[in-house]
Amino acid sequence: MTFTFRPVDPLKDAELLHAWVTHPKAAFWMMQDARLEDVEREYMKIAADEHHHAYLGLHQDGTPAFLMEKYDPAHRELVGLYEPQPGDIGMHFLTPPTDRPVHGFTRSVITAVMTHLFEDPAVRRVVVEPDVANTAVHALNEAVGFVPEREIQKPEKRALLSFCTREQFLTATGAAA
Question: Can you give the pTM of this predicted structure?
């Protein structure tokens, strides 16, 4: 599967994102009780933040397929929780609910997200901090090369701090030369 990325338009995309982030499948996104206005406000805040960016991943026909956020962990999410290195980038992704699951879709999404992040030559390592209870995403992360380092306590959750270098990603996905 091939995807393209475009920045989230906080007002235009708010209804779609609201449906995604408030669905029970998105419990780990922690926006279950968000109103439409809350989603608009959150993504307007991200759009104005030089250290945090939100993108929609699009199918080849241009329809939205998933949400991806990237952030600078030296300034957002992980400040004071680990020692950031030059070239670190933080990432979140969310696949929407569906009545017709496609085998391998989420794996294709995380692979596309990682490929997109590593297209920036300045990115040397991707950092994630999923909830320790989110075992499905731990397995996906491992499949693309993430190595857990330790559990950390964030204000909103107990998280599994994990890292993936470009080399680990290329090896795990079979793209290493």
Answer: 0.92
